[in-house]
Amino acid sequence: MSDAIKPAGGNPADLFPEVRAVGTDAPLRWLRAGYVDLRRSGWHSIFYGGCYAAAGWLMQYVFAHAYALFAGLTTGFLLLGPFLAMGLYEISRRLELGENPPLAASLFAWRPRLANIGVFAAVLAIVLLVWARASMVVFALSFDNAGLPTFADVVRALFAFEQPLFALIYFAVGGFFALFVFAIGVVSVPLMLDRNTDAVSAALASLAACARNPLTMLLWAACIVVLVALGFATLFAGLIVVMPLLGHATWHAYRDLLVPATGDRGERT
Questions:
Q1: Nearest alpha carbon to residue 56 among 177, 228, 248, 249
Q2: DSSP string of 133-173?
Q3: CA 136 – CA 241 distance, rounded (Å)
Q4: Three-state SS for 100?
Q5: How does pLDDT run across 25-70, given as a tens digit for each residue?
Q6: For residue 203, which of 263, 123, 148 has the smallest C-alpha distance?
Q7: Which of 8-12, 29-33, 144-148, 174-178 has the lowest mean pLDDT?
Q8: Disulfide check for 243: which of 52, 112, 259, 264 has CB 3.0–4.6 Å away?
Q9: Confidence at 74, pLDDT banded by 50, 70, 90
Q10: Can you tell me the distance from the alpha carbon of 233 to that of 227, in angstroms, rounded to the nearest whole number?
C-alpha cells in the first residue's frame, strides 16, 4: 500500500502545493519531531548517519595531503544532502503511516521516482562539481606563494583570520552555493518522494516556501549549519546522529510547510 506512488491527481494544488506560513518556533518543532523519529527508527537511522561519517573519514584519508580539495569536497558533499537523505525521508513517511519500515525499503525509495529525482540529483551533482572547482580556485589564489596549504594553514586562515580576505571570499562563495541548494532543496526531495512531483515543480515549491517564510527558513538554515559544524568538530563522528536528526526533521518541515495533497491523511506536525 505505502509503496505505491501517490499520483499528482487532477487537483492543481497537488501538482504545485499551497505553501503555509509558519512561525519562527517551527525549526525547534521539526527538530523535536525528527528526534522522535530517530528514536523510533533506531539503528535504521543510525545506519545512514554512519554512512555520512564514513564518507567524511574516507575523504579525509584519501585527501590528507590536499586539504584544498578535501575542504571543497567535504563541504560540497553536504550540497548533496537533500538527495542522500532520501532514505531518512522514507523512514519518516512510513512512520507517519503507522508502519515500521524495513531498511531495504528506505534504501530503494528512489526507484519508483527515478525520473524526477534523477533530474534533481543531476542538478545537485553539477552544483557540487562547480563548487569543488570554485573552492580550488579560491585556495589557489590565496595560497599561491606558499604551496598547497596544510590542515593547520586552512584552520588558521578560516578561523584565526590570518588571511581575512581568503576567509571572506571562501565563506561568501560557499554561502552562495549553500543558500542556492537550500532554497531549491529544502522541501523538494520529500515532495517528490511523497507525491512523485516533477523536479521543476518541486524546486519551485521549495523556493515558494522560502519566500513566504524567510525568517523561519533562515533560522532553519542556521540550525543546519550549527549542527553540521558540531558534527565536523567531532571529526565526523557526530554526523552519525546529526545527519539522521536533520533528515527526519526535514521531512517534518516539508509536512509543516506544504498543504497536504487531496485525500492525504497527513497532518501538520
A1: 228
A2: HHHHHHHHHHSTTT-S--HHHHHHHHHS-SSHHHHHHHHHH
A3: 30
A4: coil
A5: 999 999 999 999 999 998 999 999 998 899 888 877 776 666 666 6
A6: 123
A7: 8-12
A8: 52
A9: low
A10: 10
